Prior knowledge:
- By secondary structure, the protein is an alpha+beta fold.
- The protein is built from eleven helices and eight strands.
- Strands 1, 2, 3, 4, 5, 6, 7 and 8 form an eight-stranded mixed beta sheet that branches.
- The chain is elongated and about 115 Å long.
Amino acid sequence: EMAMEEGVKRGLLPEEARRQALVRFGGVAQAKERQREERGLPWLDVLLQDLRFTMRTLRRDPMFAVVAVLILGLGIGANVAVFSVVNTLLLRQLPFAEPSRLVWIEPADAKGLSGATYSVDALDEYRAQNHTMEAVTAYMPFYGKADYKRTGHGVAQPVNGVSVAGNFFQTLGVMPGLGRLFTEKESVHGIAQVVVLGNAYWRRQFHGDPSIVGQAITLNDMPMTVVGVLPANFDFGSYFDPGMQMDIFVPAMMDQMRDWGNTL
Length: 264
């Protein structure tokens, strides 16, 4: 309109002024493109166009919309799950003291879980003969969900538990959140019936009550004294068995397990 007014002022007829203005102005699409480039946000306009087109398409075909949303949901969920595992196992630093000094020991030809384990005698040999490692520890990986049951409070409650060597937490540099950890003597059968609680289980079942330390709870019809609670940043399942939440920890009775074969 400004170009037309300028042409009329120069003495052109309105029709000719409009024609020359359009020639000078160029096409509408080209003008929009120049405007986008001057604004510096062409991608935003393209994105808005794509979103408007997408919404029109989805409104025309509701079934396609439902399928598209389900596929997106499954894809996002799968990516989140995979990233969580990769982040925990490969990217995020282990929440232990001096993680760069930790090593994992297994046979060179290990095949399956039973092939990647050792006997109690082998653990004793590693501890006695090695001149490289400051400490060697172990845990028993042959456990299932709800191997333990807490009784004495109505219906028996399933509890996930794992047996660990007396120096397990000390070797990893894990400090107790409350109370203390196991001692090597408590890995001798019959010395003491003690248990350490996972932090999440302590909060869930005992409401974070610090007075639980020193008290006895009944597991598999056997009273066991709670000697400590682990810190909140220690999650056994994340690092040793992804997807498994471990509630309790008990000392591995090494002399009793000595004849069981490769169990560590």
